[in-house]
Amino acid sequence: MPSYDGYSQKVPYPNLTDAPDIEAAMQSLVNGVVPQTVMRFASASARAAALVNGFVPKPGMITYLIAEDRYDGRMADGSWQPLSPSGWKPLTPASGMVTQSGSPGYQVVNGSVQLRGRFARANGGQYTTGTDWLLTTIPAAYRPPTYQYWVTPVEMGAGIFYARTELAYDTGEIIVQVPPGSTSTVNGLHWAGIDGLTYSL
Length: 201
Fold this sequence. Notes:
By secondary structure, the protein is mostly beta strands. 9% of the residues lie in helices and 40% in strands. Strands 7, 8, 9, 14 and 15 form a five-stranded antiparallel β-sheet that branches. Strand 12 and strand 13 form a beta hairpin. The model has no long low-confidence stretch (mean pLDDT 87).
């Protein structure tokens, strides 16, 4: 029977009275130590593929995801929660949209996603009122569990200076709609912003 480390971490090591089996002894030791370290994976999907069968995630595990540039902790409820800011990742404008300013992007901070940036129509046109405009799409790993809605800024025009922005949890699409009303024919409504929007994962 192996003994265990003195720090109560359940890391086994062989006793002199154990039957000699260096492979089994080292395997037991390695498999006991590795889950206590910060484990590195290429991505969240690579982690999910690796931690299966007899090597399932357990509460307290910490991993670093290379593609996401993020540390995650395993919670008692079975979820992975970010432990560090991920750094800003760019958001790609949808077809017909371009970046207006603010380097559109997202980052994860303590389990919340923060958004930034402004989008304009690629043809230089206005956001006509009462129309759904697709700005960009959030990657699957960073989508919220439910629909999200915000009141967001637009370039002022014809007395309109705000819009409704929606984030769909299933598709990740960020859609903006300027309230129905008269549209300025000269100035305004050429951009829509998502600066400061945030939601929990």
